[in-house]
Predict the 3D structure of the following.
Amino acid sequence: MTRIFIPRETTAGSLGAELLVKAIETEAKYRNLDVEIVRNGSRGACWLEPLVEVETAKGRVGYGPVTSEDVADLFDNDFLNGGKHANSLGNVEELDWFKNQQRLTFARCGIIESTNVAEYKSLGGFVGLKNALATDQDGIIQEVLDSGLRGRGGAAFPTGIKWRTVADCEADQKYIVCNADEGDSGTFSDRLIMEGDPLSLVEGMTIAGLAVGATEGYIYLRSEYPLTRIILEDAIANAETAGYLGKDIQGSGKDFTLEVFMGAGAYICGEETSLLESLEGKRGQIRFKPPLPAIEGLYGKPTVVNNVISLASVPVILEKGGKHYAEYGQGRSLGTMPFQLGGNIKKGGLVEVGFGLTLRQLIENFGEGTATGKPVRAIQVGGPLGAYFPESLMDTPLDYEEFAKAGGMLGHGGVVVFDDSVNMAKQARFSMEFCSVESCGKCTPCRIGSVRGMEVIDRIVAAESAEERESEHIVLKDLCDTMESASLCAMGGLTPIPVMSAVKHFPADFNL
């Protein structure tokens, strides 16, 4: 029986993967051929989806992108044995796109059947958990500290320090909460790992529970990810059946349970305290800090709140050691980061590499420039609250500190590319509009400042004299200073970054 791999994943699904599965099954039956369809995750090369791989004597041979209309032709060209076709890719892992990556967190993604425990274990799965069960809390936390892992959700706070804080708290109950409310524009790494290798998240959260003494965990999942929920719940059930989750994990006497909680459809719930409010059944609004969630979090108990990629990176750290993970990256930005290429890009998708690659290398070597073929004019890194960089800053290393020096932030690793047809005044206005729509409304600078910001930008663009434009420009700067200094959270505090970066680097679009 020949195994054919077709992603069970949202991007591939939106491009016809389910129709493709049915077409291949129907064609194989018509030709009396015995095939098994394996539903793996996506390898992250969105430009090749739906990507079909066939297990042959030569190894796994890829074809992509494939549609249901290509199926009969594929069979005619003996694709079950790696036959040549217009969509032939050869061994997918030999493509430069993959060969030049450094995949640690995403090492299994797209290779295995997503929720299959046996396949997960065959590629190192649950070794990290086994090692964690064999050591004490301090030992687990020390490995995470040695790895240099920082929050991959955007804040870049050292993960081990957060865990240490929760571990040191005395409480009758502690929690692990995974922030899977992936709302930043141009980001999809959380979804890809949850749909392609969800057991890595399950394992990572279980290890976190062992490290801090928590017995319950919640995955706060973005409401726009219905397929992800199905896959996650399958993975959780399979892990429980195999004894890697639930009561008495692998006979250790340790307990840890997991539950998926669907989000409220609000961008602001990506902020950890707003997320906790929503998880408790309340309206998603920012909490005042202190106290920090690590001390008083979910239901007032010590709580670890980490992003999906942070937690999914933990198994490889406990499997191979913190020092091994720290060999990747540079400076204080250690390990790897999954960068997501989107926008006007020829080859969009997920690229996992160690910190230090430049923005130019990422866009030109992996993305191969714009989809239109026009020059790159602007790049927004870090989601809707990230700075707009001009082409002249494309040689900035992808490193937390280096990006901060250049006036930007890496955030969740989303990279959105614009060609020279973009109007940056409109993009700046969109940033203010986004804030006004998504604000929780708790603080005045964010709630009111964003609305006033749209109005001021409109007046700058419409101004008939240089004096009037300069006057409104001063108002905009003062307004942004107020939002940055007085907002309760990053929603209002970071909105000035894309606005003022657009003004600074693209003044002509504002007639300045």
Q: What stands out?
A: DSSP finds 23 helices and 16 strands in the chain. The domain at 424-510 is CATH 1.20.1440.230 (de novo design (two linked rop proteins)).
